[in-house]
Amino acid sequence: MVLKKYILCCFLLLISGTLFAQDKQAIIKLMNDQQTAWNKGDINSFMQGYWKSDSVMFIGKSAPLYGWQNTLNRYKKAYPNKAAMGKLTFGLIKINVLDKENAFVLGSWHLDRKAGALGGYFTLWFKKINGEWKIVCDHTS
Questions:
Q1: Could you tell me the CA-to-CA distances from 23 to 15, 20, 52 in Å, in that order?
Q2: Helix (H, G, I), strand (E, B), or coil: what is residue 44?
Q3: Where in the chain are the domains?
């Protein structure tokens, strides 16, 4: 009986580890897609990685900003053209899939552009919504 429980426990851990690995790969793909969209000068496609909701939260150098549309507007104001956007590079430091619906990502960002390079770090809270990973909270500095 104990052996059966042990085997079942190991099997469940193996399955959950495999599923979490797939989730991690989906998050990496989303971030790669965002980087590609940014580098094409396409902020609208970049924003597809965010939950399209008034509840999405972006925290930058000033106060928290709520809402997908407000976040899009902020990006467009801060980066009005491709030259201002520059070339984005993400560095993914840590991706923790916490459970089947939540993940935490720590990373760095760097913009190489003629107006001067920018960079910093970010923490992202991802939530699986309708089967897709979306950023629900972004703290970038």
A1: 12, 5, 20
A2: helix
A3: 2-140
The rounded distance, in Å, linking the Cα atoms of 66 and 74 is 11
Which tokens belong to 102? 């939540």
**Tokens standing for 84?**
């201002």
CA distances 8 to 22, 29, 123, Å, are: 21, 32, 35
- Per the CB < 8 A criterion, the answer to whether 71 and 59 are in contact is no
What is the C-alpha to C-alpha distance for residues 71 and 40, in angstroms, rounded to an integer? 19
CATH 3.10.450.50 corresponds to the domain 2-140:
yes
| Nearest C-alpha neighbor of 52 from the set 67, 42, 37, 30 | 67
Question: Using one digit for the tens of pLDDT, what is the confidence trace for 63-109?
Answer: 899 999 999 999 999 999 999 999 999 999 999 999 999 999 999 99
